[in-house]
Design brief:
By secondary structure, the chain is of the alpha+beta class. Among the domains are: about 60 residues, wza like fold (2-Layer Sandwich), CATH 3.30.1950.10; about 90 residues, Outer membrane lipoprotein wza fold like. About 25% of the residues lie in helices and about 30% in strands. The chain starts with a helix and ends in a 16-residue tail after the last helix.
């Protein structure tokens, strides 16, 4: 083959590579009943969650550290609030409880109180984490929970956990959404760690490659020199 023919072949190969690089492929294989959403963020639940028995809330009164406390709502829905004693909290939204405490503090104890109520731990509401994690199961929702912290609650990725195959299932207004995430990319700061909400189901995928490698290593003798293997079973 002369230099001219070789140059033409190389140019043709480069053109093919450029064309294939320009063709975008979907990030996941979609079945006919799955629709790819344009927005890359899972929608958050619209309605706030009402407080329930055994939820733990952090109550803060601006400028009054002695009146700020973290309390657990009792089985009867009552919470012990400093100065006020038992206050009905079960069934109320956090914002509603803020107004109740402000109204009861105003005049008797403070002139114009500003109260903040934040759910610290929602024991009555669960998230479920399954798949390739070390401790799969149901876990109480915690305030400001993100995906990385949720996976950590389950002991982290299991031995065969696949970093780039982490699914978050969520239902919002009757629509079931599935978010696909890469824990490794999140830890590297490639994109934000998504928020997790009560009722979410998190599933960590399996890494067949890691599982196959372990099977190979288990049957090998003690390696004292470099080895090259052909894995025909994975074809």
């Amino acid at each position: 083959m002369n230099c001219s023919s070789l140059a033409k072949n190389l140019l043709g190969l480069c053109a093919i590579l450029l064309l294939t690089a320009c063709v975008s492929t979907p990030p996941v294989a979609l079945s006919p009943d799955v629709e790819l959403v344009k927005d890359n963020a899972l929608p958050a639940p619209d309605a706030p969650f009402a407080l329930r028995p055994f939820d733990t809330v952090a109550i803060s009164v601006f400028g009054q550290p002695d009146l700020s406390n973290t309390v657990e709502i009792g089985p009867n829905g009552l919470a012990n609030v400093p100065l006020l004693g038992r206050v009905q909290a079960g069934g109320l939204l956090p914002s509603d409880l803020e107004r109740v405490i402000e109204d009861r503090l105003r005049g008797r104890f403070l002139r114009d109180p500003v109260v903040s109520v934040v759910v610290d731990r929602a024991t009555s509401r669960q998230i479920v984490i399954g798949g390739q994690v070390r401790r799969p199961g149901s876990f109480a929702y915690q305030n400001d929970l993100d995906l990385s912290r949720a996976v950590a609650l389950a002991g982290g990725l299991g031995e065969f956990g696949k970093q780039d195959d982490v699914l978050v299932h969520r239902e919002v207004e009757g629509i079931k959404y599935i978010g696909v995430y890469n824990i490794g990319a999140i830890q590297r700061g490639n994109y934000d760690d998504p928020s997790i909400y009560p009722g979410d189901l998190i599933v960590v995928g399996d890494s067949p490659g890691r599982r196959r490698l372990l099977q190979i290593l288990q049957v090998l003798p003690l390696v004292t020199q470099p080895l090259v293997l052909i894995d025909r079973a994975s074809r």
